[in-house]
From TrEMBL:
Pfam families: FecR (PF04773), FecR_C (PF16344). Keywords: Membrane, Transmembrane, Transmembrane helix. Residues 255-322 form the Protein FecR C-terminal domain. Residues 121-213 form the FecR protein domain. This is FecR domain-containing protein. It comes from the Bacteria. InterPro entries: FecR, FecR_C, Ferrdict_sens_TM. The keyword Transmembrane helix applies. The chain crosses the membrane at residues 92-109. The keyword Membrane applies. PANTHER family: PERIPLASMIC SIGNAL SENSOR AND SIGMA FACTOR ACTIVATOR FECR-RELATED, PROTEIN FECR.
Amino acid sequence: MEAEEIYLLITRYLARQTSSDENERLATWVAQSSDHERTFEQLKAVWQASPTPPAPAATAAALRQVKARLAPPVPVAPPAIRRWRLARRYQTAALLVLLSVLGGGYFYARPTVPAYRLSLTPAGRQQTIRLPDGSLVTLAPQSQLRYPVRFSETSREVYLEGEAFFEVSKNPHRPFRVHSGTWVTQVLGTKFNVSAVRGASQTAVSLVEGQVQVNDDHGQYLLAPGQQLLGDHATGRIYRQAFNKARVTAWRSNKLVFQNEKLADAASQIERLYGVKLVFADPATAEIRLWATFNNEPLTAVLGALHQAGSLDYRREGKVIYLRQAAAKSSGE
């Protein structure tokens, strides 16, 4: 991506106005190099230090003005050096943009929120994060975790979108809370999985070890090891149930385990693991039930197994895969 494009994308992301596809592009860019990560953190720090962050439209206008002021002279240096200098100009411009639209508040106003880090994972990649208290988080593909550089003396708060497995260090004096949508999962020290994928039909907290309490707008729910709290977005129903640990945590080993799951729900896992988009020919195709296990296999093997089972046909165009029932295809031709 061009420098101007990435800086505008970052400001739109910080304003929570990006799509899931744009979040994927940004995650891939941040993961490419330490320089990209440092640039992202610099822009985020300026943004968070402002009590009233600017709208992306204002940022874009300011960027055009600063870019004009910093326009480079006719280049005489070798191409590689010119590209490096231009990238540095854009980084400086982006910082000046935020400072200008924030009114210089970065230097004079005390931050109203603690400094945060943001970890994002692109499709097909996981990331293990060690938090300031020593807790470990394994972040699933196409997920993001926001957490403070330093936890407060009274609590440990993190914010998840997507899926992650937590191994929390015990500290009875500082509860650990995972914010995922309207759910807040509170623990003192334990191991559990949280699935809060945007657009998914369900949210789930699955407890492997210890004890957790999940709070939402309707009440509080205590879980014991081996129990899962499941929230159905369509019906609003929330209930406890036993869960299969191997199935719930299979993603940590790049496995796919489907046990009588709707294709619509399985599609999210396939998309995140392989970086593709599944499109169904009709609602009936999305309702097909799957019984299958794939152990870190390539996408072609997964699609081939679905086809050979006799229930699905597929057509692939780049990163988009079109699925339909085999019977519907044969009857229509």
